[in-house]
Design goal:
The protein has about 300 residues and is α/β, with parallel strands linked by helices. The protein has twelve helices and eight strands. It has two domains: about 5-95, Orthogonal Bundle (434 Repressor (Amino-terminal Domain)), CATH 1.10.260; about 100-295, Endonuclease, Chain A. The strands form two sheets. The chain has a six-stranded mixed β-sheet with strand order 5-4-3-6-7-8, with helices on both faces. The radius of gyration is 21 Å and the shape is elongated. The termini are far apart.
């Protein structure tokens, strides 16, 4: 369970489950039907329909087909898309992986589970190097800041265990098949290093090496290129299949994390990312920027 997830009894909602439930609510509303109608079609209770629509329970294909029939949704593509979303949700709920060996709380547990199943991630960062690209010394520097140190102490979560979990996440970039990562970094990220000069040199050198991987794209957005809406906070766009088909956007700001689960909301983040990437330095210019910055240290 994550800190951001609502609960009902022994049920826990999931990102993909909530997205599927939202799609079904739209279809039911468009058909002019109530939860009572849905419950009757499923030979179940209104409580069960509520759980389904709010993403609290995994959904079976027969239930999806029955609801689509009730809502007069006969397009095979639409029905198939809902069933695929349900399948992914069921797999995520029962998934076991390396992250089970590490202590991770709140939204991070859900995020890492999705990241482990993703085929590609687009990341915009105005403040920190993305977790998939951080060196151990960079992580130690971040964890040593007063606010983070207090949080670590409260959770009894040793630094080295956290670093090990981060390195385990990074194996996705070299696994077969590898995760495709497209990261755009604001210049401030590259000029505000925790841990001092040596940490900065090591992190910049690591970024240049990672940029050489065929599945990793790194661009820099310099100060001189002005402002944009993305400076309000970082966000990641997680994709599981063909571009845009199953996207989930995760945004982060101080004391707040937000999931945007498909549809126009996730598409809006994708449009913003493309705008930022278009205005950023290209890959060659970005690599030159990293080398030049490293020489300045």
């Amino acid at each position: 369970m994550t800190a951001s997830q609502p609960m009902l009894g022994n049920s826990t909602s999931s990102v993909l489950g909530r997205r599927l439930g939202g799609e079904l609510v739209k279809l039911r509303t468009a058909a002019g039907l109530t939860q009572s109608h849905a419950a009757k079609a499923l030979t179940s209770s209104i409580t069960k329909v509520t759980k389904m629509e709010r993403g609290w329970v995994p959904m079976r294909d027969p239930d999806i087909r029955a609801l689509c029939e009730l809502y007069e949704v006969h397009d095979p593509g639409t029905v198939g898309r809902l069933q695929e979303l349900a399948r992914l949700d069921r797999e995520r709920r029962k998934a076991k992986g390396w992250w089970d060996d590490y202590a991770m709380l709140g939204t991070m547990q859900e995020y890492v589970t999705l990241e482990s199943a993703a085929t590609s991630i687009k990341a915009w960062q105005p403040a920190y190097v993305p977790g998939l690209l951080q060196t151990p010394d960079y992580v130690r520097g971040l964890r040593a800041t007063p606010a983070n140190a207090a949080s670590v102490a409260r959770r009894n979560d040793p630094d080295e265990e956290f670093i090990a979990s981060r390195l385990a996440r990074q194996r996705r970039l070299t696994d077969d098949p590898p995760l495709a990562l497209y990261a755009v970094l604001y210049e401030a990220v590259l000029r505000n290093f925790p841990g001092g000069v040596e940490t900065a040199r090591g992190q910049l050198d690591h970024l240049t090496k990672m940029a050489d991987l065929p599945n990793v794209t790194i661009q820099v957005f310099p100060f001189r290129n002005g402002t944009h809406q993305g400076l309000n906070g970082s966000f990641n766009i997680i994709s599981f299949a063909e571009p845009g088909a199953m996207d989930v956007a995760y945004s982060e700001a101080a004391f707040k994390q937000t999931w945007v689960e498909g549809g126009e909301g996730a598409a809006g983040y994708d449009d913003l990312f493309e705008l930022i990437a278009t205005r950023a330095l290209d890959e060659r210019e970005s690599l030159s920027f990293l080398h030049h910055l490293c020489k300045e240290l």
